[in-house]
Amino acid sequence: MRILKAKDYKEMSEMAADIIGAQVLLKPDAVLGLATGSTPIGTYEELVKRYESGRLDFRKIKTVNLDEYRGLTKDNDQSYYYFMHSHLFDHINIDKANTNVPDGMEPDAIKAGEDYENIISNFGGIDLQLLGLGNNGHIGFNEPCDEFIDKTHVVDLTQSTIEANKRFFASIDEVPKQAYTMGIGSIMRAKRVLMLVSGKGKAQIVKDAFFGPVTPNVPASILQLHNDFILIGDAEALSCL
Ligand code: F6R
How far is 211 from 229, CA to CA, in rounded Å? Predict the structure, then answer.
């Protein structure tokens, strides 16, 4: 595990874009695993800037996103499909046929999971997986529980995640109660994992996840066992270390 300290959110985003940009330059047809949420927005802005100035070319890049709310259509502005298009895909030269987000409207959870795992394996696995960190230690939507779940599956969101995500919806009742998410194994099989953490609110969970026991009660703690895991945090998020 490597921990890189940024002074603030902007520097964290630039450092993340440096690493993702290096991956794109080294392997122009790389498979990027992507995340939503507020933390990676600055990184996506930075990648767009670098594309616009001719420094990055996404023509052959393939992507798989971590997760999607169950029951939200692609055109719902709270869906992760919509998020990825508005923050990244619509602004770079990626072939949208090569971008993937779990299908939130697939009613059959088994099929949704299998289809998504097939997409990942047909791509030959993920070269670089970008992650944020939930306040309760979740990664993707793998919530604290009694066991690590391997592959893409449906989850019931915890009350704390529903609370944390209500800021994006008109009211808490509109926050979906379930999601499809890559499993812990889907994430751990990525060749490299890059997690971004920002703000004081994440400081305690960063300490618990990366300096405490490896346990499914803190799902991110499993990343201690990944052999190419980079954590970039701003000063506030790393303030408990
Ligand atoms: C998003 C995702 C989530 C977020 C996490 C942190 O695709 O999988 O695990 O990364 O909830 O969210 P923010 O960045 O909003 O603090």
Answer: 14
Number of domains, the chain: 1
Please indicate whether residue 67 is annotated as part of the active site.
Answer: yes
Q: Which of 32, 43, 141, 166 to mutate to test the pocket of ligand 1 (most atoms within 8 A of CB)?
A: 141
The reply to whether 239 falls in a domain is no
Determine the atom of ligand 1 nearest the C-alpha atom of 202: 16
Is 91 a known active-site residue? no
Give this prediction's pTM.
Answer: 0.97
CATH of the domain at 17: 3.40.50.1360
Q: Which atom of ligand 1 is nearest to the CA of 80?
A: 7
Cβ neighbors of 6 (< 8 A, separation 6 or more) are 12, 14, 15, 232, 233, 234, 235
Range of 184's domain?
Answer: 2-234
Tens of pLDDT, residues 170-223: 999 999 999 999 999 999 999 999 999 999 999 999 999 999 999 999 999 999
d(CA 200, CA 238): 8
